[in-house]
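check this one:
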Amino acid sequence: MIIALNNKSNLNKEEFNQYQENFSKISTEHQMIMCPTLLNIPMFNLDNCDLGAQNVSKHENGAHTGEVSATQLASHNVKYCIVGHSERRQELRETDEEINQKIKNLYASDITPILCVGETREERENNQVKEIITNEV
């Protein structure tokens, strides 16, 4: 089993350091991946889990203010990255094509993507689960 922890937009600098201190005491036979907010990635210092990111730009590099490229993540020893978050699909209208480009950029930087898939409540109620998930994959 793989356990991926997504800190979302939580934990300021001090809270993250305390979180890591508490987390460092956890021992398990399962692989663990911690995905902190981008600001906390440089402070990651755990030996009992791998480092992941919560998102990546669809662009390789360039003038894309606020974006973080796969090569930048790789330079911080990020091994995994979550893409396809439901809130990004809904709130930011992120498309399957954009997510596909993110996955390609991650592979090019030797980062393993973690793809989130799933339907909305409305899609589930309309029996579109299989169609939605198939399209997202």
Summary: Residues 96-108 form the longest helix (13 residues).
